[in-house]
Amino acid sequence: MSYYAPDLFKDKVALVTGGRSGIGYAIAETLLQHGAKVCICSRKEEPLAEAARTLSKLGTCVYRPCDIRKSEEVEAVADLIQEEFGRLDVLVNNAGGQFPSLARHINDKGWNAVINTNLNGTFYVSRVMAERFFIPQQAGNIVTIIVNMASGFPGMAHTGAARAGVENLTKSIAQEWARFNIRANCVAPGTIISSGLDTYAEPVRQLLDQLKEDNLMQRHGTMEEVANAVLFLASPLSSYTSGITLQVDGLDHLHANRMRLVNLFNE
Ligand SMILES: CCCCCCCCC/C=C/C(=O)SCCNC(=O)CCNC(=O)[C@H](O)C(C)(C)COP(=O)(O)OP(=O)(O)OC[C@H]1O[C@@H](n2cnc3c(N)ncnc32)[C@H](O)[C@@H]1OP(=O)(O)O
Ligand SMILES: NC(=O)C1=CN([C@@H]2O[C@H](COP(=O)(O)OP(=O)(O)OC[C@H]3O[C@@H](n4cnc5c(N)ncnc54)[C@H](OP(=O)(O)O)[C@@H]3O)[C@@H](O)[C@H]2O)C=CC1
């Protein structure tokens, strides 16, 4: 059941990066259920096509494989959106990821992989979609998924640095592009039950249980809770809000046990 009007995104077109799985899929699903036409992109063509097939039962959903780290592939996604819809109204930068490691063990390649994905990739997609659609249209909306890194992110310093960069980038473009009627905001999820968490092995799995106990609401978040926050920021319900980060973390940004992260690898 939804508290939003079912036609909230009628005649609107949305791009969800990383929309084939987890939180991105839930966001694409919710946008479709509220009338949007959706494009999803990610690197792995087969699961991407499969996700688009399933999502198409809810409305119009197209896909194009794309590594957001390659701006020429991002341009190809814009080409598809232009051909299929001739416009874009909402960009959800959701694609991202990292691996747990103490900072001193992250080598150059691993560091660059995470920075390129989360910071550079997010910038490329935002710039391309703004240039191709939002600025010419004089309207657009960008919502970017980051993480809860307000107090740093021990155990995942690369992603903390990248997402802090994205949060600051969002503040800059929100100001530069306000004159084009473009809004830009971030959503910072805490620990969310999703396919992303399945990628973690011990000792992180055990840590996840501890983080749930530490949480003041005594639980992890759901993908639907993140999707609902995105829906709010992507819609006119938030029309006077830009440049902010909405925390969806059951208070973790105020009350997180950083010692658990620091001690995770027993060094
Ligand atoms: C504290 C925890 C709190 C955790 C508790 C809190 C969790 C909640 C907060 C966040 C949750 C989430 O984001 S949920 C998860 C979201 N989804 C994901 O993270 C998806 C999985 N991750 C990724 O796709 C990868 O992390 C990412 C590196 C960005 C992908 O880039 P690439 O495809 O280019 O990566 P690869 O080619 O596989 O790897 C490139 C290099 O990166 C390094 N590398 C990659 N994986 C590695 C690994 N497991 N361990 C070490 N190093 C690794 C190596 O140097 C690799 O080079 P070689 O040595 O040559 O191979
Ligand atoms: N789950 C959680 O607790 C939290 C998650 N987040 C963030 O939310 C987002 C979604 O995570 P979640 O759904 O949990 O995890 P998933 O691993 O399921 O989602 C990551 C998605 O991003 C895509 N992706 C990754 N790298 C690239 C790339 N270079 N180019 C294009 N697509 C890419 C993946 O598809 P493919 O492999 O096909 O490229 C996948 O669909 C991520 O940014 C994550 O860091 C933030 C805080 C907490």
TrEMBL record:
GO terms for molecular function: 2,4-dienoyl-CoA reductase (NADPH) activity. Pfam families: adh_short_C2. Its EC number is 1.3.1.38. Keywords: Fatty acid biosynthesis, Fatty acid metabolism, Lipid biosynthesis, Lipid metabolism, NADP, Oxidoreductase, Peroxisome, Phosphoprotein. It is found in: Peroxisome. Pathway: Lipid metabolism. It catalyses: (2E)-hexenoyl-CoA + NADPH + H(+) = hexanoyl-CoA + NADP(+); (2E)-dodecenoyl-CoA + NADPH + H(+) = dodecanoyl-CoA + NADP(+); (2E)-tetradecenoyl-CoA + NADPH + H(+) = tetradecanoyl-CoA + NADP(+); a (2E)-enoyl-CoA + NADPH + H(+) = a 2,3-saturated acyl-CoA + NADP(+). InterPro entries: NAD(P)-bd_dom_sf, Peroxisomal_t2-enoyl-CoA_red, SDR_fam. It comes from the Bacteria. PANTHER family: PEROXISOMAL TRANS-2-ENOYL-COA REDUCTASE. Participates in chain elongation of fatty acids. Catalyzes the reduction of trans-2-enoyl-CoAs of varying chain lengths from 6:1 to 16:1, having maximum activity with 10:1 CoA. Has no 2,4-dienoyl-CoA reductase activity. Interacts with PEX5, probably required to target it into peroxisomes. This is Peroxisomal trans-2-enoyl-CoA reductase. The lineage of its organism: Bacteria, Pseudomonadati, Bacteroidota, Saprospiria, Saprospirales.
